[in-house]
Amino acid sequence: MTVLISKKIVKKYFSSNNSSLFFNEIYWLKKFENYEFVPRIIDINYKKYVISISYEGERISQKNKPRNWSNQLRKILYCLKKNNCFHSDIKPDNLLVKNNKLILIDFAQSSKISDLNKNIFLKKRIFFDEYSINRINLSINKNVICSNNLRVLVVWNPKNQNQIEKKIKQNKNISIIDKIKIKKIFYRDKFKDRIFWVDQFYNKKIGKNTDKLKNNIYVFIIKSIKPRFKLNEMIFSKDRRIVDDRIFAFKKRIRNNKSSIIHISDNFEESKRNAIFLSRAKNDFPAKYFFETQNIFNSKKDFFKKLNRSKKLKYVVLRDQTFENDDIDILVNNYFLFKQISDCHSYKIKNLNIISNSGDPVEDNGFKVANYIKIKNKIIKLDVRFIGDGYLDTNWQKKILNNRKYNLGHYIPNQENFIYSLLYHIVYHKGYLDKKYIQIVKKNFELKKINLKVIKKTIENYLLSKKYEIMRPLDLTIPITYHLDNFSIKKEVQLIKSQIDNRNFSGVNKMFYNIIKFQKITVYLKKDIIFLIFLNQISLIKMKLKRFIFRYFQLNN
Known about the structure:
The longest helix has 26 residues, at 527-552. With 557 residues, this protein is α+β, with helices and mostly antiparallel strands. It folds into 4 domains: 1-114, Orthogonal Bundle (Transferase(Phosphotransferase), domain 1), CATH 1.10.510; 142-293, Alpha-Beta Plaits, CATH 3.30.70.141; 297-466, Beta Polymerase, domain 2, CATH 3.30.460; 486-552. Helices cover 38% and strands 19% of the residues. The protein has 19 helices and 24 strands. Strands 17, 18, 19, 20, 21 and 22 form a 6-stranded mixed beta sheet that branches.
């Protein structure tokens, strides 16, 4: 369909192949011709399938929204229901504003409520009218919800939908934001192969015998009310992960040891990934909920004020914040609490580049702590370190937080912890002396020479005096700059294997790069290392091929 817009008339051109949409649009516009919330038909060309309708303003936005827009929309919804009409796509693009009044457009794929109840609908995806107020509100208003509290719930078998929706509404820890019905063929918009779509949706290998997406599905975007993160044992494996405890408990009750009933994301980052595969693009619903509802701060001062208000959160900014747009290296006592308060999003998610400092986020069963916040129209990157992540000795991390001091609106380490944690960072995280740190070292130490060897000796003596250990960080793409013994090499090989199993091929290449850069050549020449290098490259190529094939070609599973 093609739409031509002028200030008086809007012309909608339908193809002969979509003549049903043409007649459907006419039917509903005539049905509502006595109501003020729909455009008027000016002319109909039945031979060329063209409808001319009145121009009714611009799409609803933060700037033009009427004060009583929600009341107006409720009245529209009432009229639709009264006339047995299910619009199916009430979103900002289809809701216009003219003279402070809402106008609803695009009825081409609307249906009768009675037909919908019989499972008859035209579109691949239908968005339920009753939740359209949430859809509009979250789109046009900023900071009305913490994006980190949003979750995705998928009902794989439509027979279970009514029962599950009833249980959601009975649960005091959950509220429904949106409800979507999706045809089973929708996966072809992303990947032509159903199994591969499910595989990517879950971010793990899925067996070919899965029943998922054999039927039409229901998707609920839900809000976790006051989420509480706890360590739980997974339902179908012995793995233990920190998840949204109340959501997880709800999932266990619904599933009752059956895997094909529902999917509920355990955290925000998993939800965001799920939503992408249920959308056509990041700026399409439901992905839009996760990318366009993030809290926007006015300044770094505003950001730190919010952190300071929390009684349960402890944090320090590990390194200097000289400029407003500087990245933030931060240490916190609770990673999940920090994510919720700051509403930060992960960004170094695993990809299929040849080499990348990437991986799955911590909360999505990975190790990456790279996040970002929004300050006005700019993105500020954060590396969120937390107690027990191996970035520093755990006892040292606790002391840094307990002995922190307040300075210029935020918390920083005391002088001793600041300078020695910086030396540790230079030696064991970077493996080289950056020019920006030379002046700081000169200011705090009376050293004749300032080079990596001297700094290494200084930090080694400090660690020995405090009984702090050199740790292998949870973030596996941080290089190991010290010499690895045979036992440590074996452990590193096992970690590399686990990342290949998790299909983090780009991240594994980064790990190999770090080994080549900081370890002896003899390590690189070990048989098991060489084997894993070849295995990873083959696996990377295979995944790239799969993505290409299943994106453009439909094959039998």
